[in-house]
Design brief:
Blueprint (H helix, E strand, L loop, with lengths): L7 E4 L2 E4 H19 L7 H23 L3 H68 L2
Antiparallel strand pairs: 1-2
Helix pairs in contact: 1-2, 2-3
Length: about 140
């Protein structure tokens, strides 16, 4: 329902510009799609993409509104933010995976060191037992 002026839409009794309505709708759609599109928890890449997309869309809408094209700004900023956020999230995932692998290697090395220490201790005990037995029975 229009309020009698071009490019305005009635909302709760007051006028709302169509561009603002479209920008708000796109933002709500992006948030809804990000929250309902996943069966499990989001990965860091997906979280980064979602946050970057929303931030890019919001920033694009704000910058675009200063020149009178909020919708175009949101449509340009959204994908740019999505890509940037996904790349950042991917890097964080890779860094976390590398930390996990390094921790596993460290744990394996620590376990091997402990095994060798115990083996060395057992060999020393065996050698001491052999020397004691030799001294007991004599040559």
């Amino acid at each position: 329902m229009t309020c009698g002026r071009a490019n305005q839409w009635c909302y709760d009794g007051g006028p709302m510009k169509i561009k603002t309505l479209v920008s708000a709708s796109l933002l709500a759609l992006l948030v809804l799609a990000g929250n309902t599109g996943c069966a499990g928890p989001l990965t860091q890449r997906e979280q980064g993409g979602l946050i970057g997309g929303v931030a890019g869309m919001g920033t694009g809408a704000i910058i675009g509104s200063t020149v009178g094209h909020a919708t175009a700004g949101a449509l340009i900023g959204g994908p740019i933010g999505l890509i940037g956020g996904a790349v950042l999230g991917d890097q964080l995932m890779r860094q976390r995976q590398m930390q996990i692998e390094q921790q596993a290697e460290s744990d394996n090395a620590r376990a091997e060191l402990e095994r060798l220490r115990k083996e060395n201790e057992q060999l020393r005990r065996d050698k001491t037992d052999d020397a004691t037995a030799w001294n007991y029975w004599g040559p």
